Amino acid sequence: MSRVLVGVSGGIAAYKACELIRGLRTREHEVRVATTQNALRFVSSLTLQALSGHAVRSELFSLSQESEISHIELADWADVAIVAPATAGFLARIAHGMADDLLATICLALRAPLIVAPAMNVNMYRHPATQANLDVLAKRGVRIVGPDRGELACGWEGEGRLVAVEELLGAVEQALDPGTYQGEVVLVTAGPTAEAVDPVRVLTNRSSGKMGFALAEQAARRGAEVILVAGPVGLPTPYGVQRMNVESAAQMQQAVMDALDRATIVIMAAAVADYRVAERAREKIKRETQDVLTLELLRNPDILAELVPRKGGRTVVGFAAETERVLENARAKLERKGCDLIVANDVARQDTGFDVDRNAVWILGPGGNDVVEVPAAAKQEVAARILDRIRQVRDA
Ligand code: PMT
Questions:
Q1: How far is Cα 248 from Cα 182, in angstroms, rounded to an integer?
Q2: From the alpha carbon of 359, which atom of ligand 1 is closest?
Q3: Is it the case that residue 387 has pLDDT exceeding 90?
Q4: Which of 35-39, 82-86, 215-219, 372-376 has the lowest mean pLDDT?
Q5: What does the pLDDT read at residue 300?
Q6: CA atoms within 13 A on the CB side of 122
Q7: If exposure means fewest CB atoms within 10 Å of the residue's CB, which of 18, 44, 48, 124 is most exposed?
Q8: Model pTM?
Q9: Pocket of ligand 1, candidates 215, 251, 272: which has the most ligand atoms within 8 Å of its Cβ, to mutate?
Q10: Alpha-carbon distance 255 to 193, whole Å?
Q11: How far is the CA of 258 from the centre of ligand 1 (A)?
């Protein structure tokens, strides 16, 4: 568990800090919050306190707040600090080393990595003063995330939106990691595939993509270059990850084979459809024409089994989605597919596996006898444990 200091300055995007705090707590980080006075005009101290589980600090000269935890203690406590949103005024103050309010003072005393996520009106963002301040901060090693382009609360359109919460979470986790995947190129597959029946219908499965996306995110935050081949899911792309969207198993196979040469590690978390419709109807099949519809299905290529003979020095990790005799079946799959590790999960469970935020897995090593059990936890945590195991295998 890491200690994350969330700073909030006074802009309309301050409400998104609530989601950031919630996301950090879900990932089992300890969170403390420090705000500017103006931030509390947009979001209440009570909300921030309830979400973080700690009293919120907002005043520099408050005896009661200082006796709870002093501003210097707070700066020393943090493993990483993120200010989201960071307004133009706040960026100007920290770029000039001002210590005229609590949050700016903490930033000055901070020794941990500092991330700022600018959010403001597009013209304020483009102003040379703001750009110069951001340059100064970047040169000092402050990580600047965003802003995004889009419709702004002020009515203007352009750069100035706070980036998505997932991107903020990714930036925090990347800053926390010592970079044990530096130099690795990790190719991850995620989500279901969808096999077209006709122009409107598909055969698919219950995979949400959450497990694969968590692996991609965790690998990126450990310093890897990550290529994510994603089936049709609506999840946001994790911070720093290169995403290729595919629909069918054939497209996934093509994307994996295209990216294989660059990869040093391949993790196949996708639930690839084992069958496709032999002949896709050109027009929508009309229900009035047939009481019984028979589809002929052809077996899809086994992407994992096909890439193993080309694996060279790569580490190849498969998944095994089982509903019975999980370990026994996973051992057989490890043998059959010839990968280095296989991650087995019991997809008959309701609380873990498909389409939920948690998973429980067994990671089987060569021969299937060397088994590491990861009990039920958030998929981000499970992904972290899988990457720990892959690192051990590669370093052995
Ligand atoms: O996406 P989520 O909702 O988060 O759920 C996560 C998950 C349950 C999908 C994931 O943890 C998981 O188990 N993924 C693998 C699902 C699967 O297809 O398992 P399988 O036992 O059928 O396949 C074994 C391995 O072969 C897998 O690595 C799979 O990607 C691969 N495969 C399967 C079929 C095929 N035609 N080509 C393949 O490469």
A1: 32
A2: 11
A3: yes
A4: 372-376
A5: 97
A6: 12
A7: 44
A8: 0.72
A9: 272
A10: 13
A11: 20
For 194, 195, 302, the CA distances from 284, given in Å and listed in that order, are 16, 15, 29
Pocket of ligand 1 (CB under 6 A): 189, 191, 207-211, 249, 268-272, 274, 300, 302-304, 318-321, 333, 345, 347, 353-355
Average pLDDT over residues 344-356: 95
Tell me the CA–centroid distance for residue 158 and ligand 1, in Å: 40
d(CA 302, CA 123): 52
Return the active site residues: 154
Percent of the chain with pLDDT over 70: 100
Residue nearest to atom 13 of ligand 1 (CA): 321
DSSP per residue, 355-369: TSSEEEEEEE-GGGT
Compare 78 and 221 and report the one with higher pLDDT: 78
pLDDT digits (tens, 9 = 90+) for 180-193: 999 999 999 999 99
Radius of gyration of the chain (CA): 24
H or E element that contains 152: none
CA 198 to ligand 1 centroid distance, Å: 24
DSSP letters, 253-286, are: HHHHHHHHTT-SEEEE--B--SEEESS--SSPPP
Atom of ligand 1 nearest to the CA of 355: 3
Q: Is the dihedral of CA 283, 284, 287, 288 positive or negative?
A: negative
CA-233 nearest atom, ligand 1: 1
- The rounded Å distance from CA 212 to ligand 1 centre is 10
- Complete domains list, the chain, with CATH: 3-176 (3.40.50.1950), 185-395 (3.40.50.10300)
pLDDT at 178 over 80: no
